[in-house]
Amino acid sequence: MQVCQRKKVKKDQVHIYNMKSDIIIINVNYQNLLYTMQTNKTLYTTIGFLMFVVGFLAIFLSLVGLNLSYLSWINKAIGDGGAFLVNVCLIVGGSILVYMTKANRD
Questions:
Q1: Dihedral sign for Cα atoms in the order 96, 98, 99, 101
Q2: Residue of 22, 47, 75, 97 with fewest CB within 10 Å of its CB?
Q3: What gap in Å lies between CA 100 and CA 45, rounded to an integer?
């Protein structure tokens, strides 16, 4: 196993030096992630909307004593309180995803 050293050179590049003194450049570009999200707006908006609807529906059904069958493992694994927090995270995450795809970045 070789030990690698990291040295941050620029904002967008990280150089990693290994024992054979080969240089591997990894581009860390966060603008590329935003560009990808903007080019696939429909996909990310649909995923965010489905996350929001599933989280809201799961909370609503749990109020009347029912649960979605594919989310029932959450109730068994971490209980009702944990399942409520997971469903709230689904709602918030879906809302953020929809907002990020619909917001005008220019």
A1: positive
A2: 22
A3: 9
105 SS3 class: coil
Q: Model pTM greater than 0.70?
A: no
The CA–CA distances, whole Å, from 10 to 7, 16, 35, 74 equal: 9, 13, 21, 43
Mean pLDDT, residues 68-85: 90
State which residues form the domain around 4: 1-31
Backbone dihedral region for residue 81 (phi beyond 0: left; psi -120 to 50: alpha; all else: beta): alpha
* Residue 3 sits in the same domain as residue 49: no
Chain length of the chain? 106
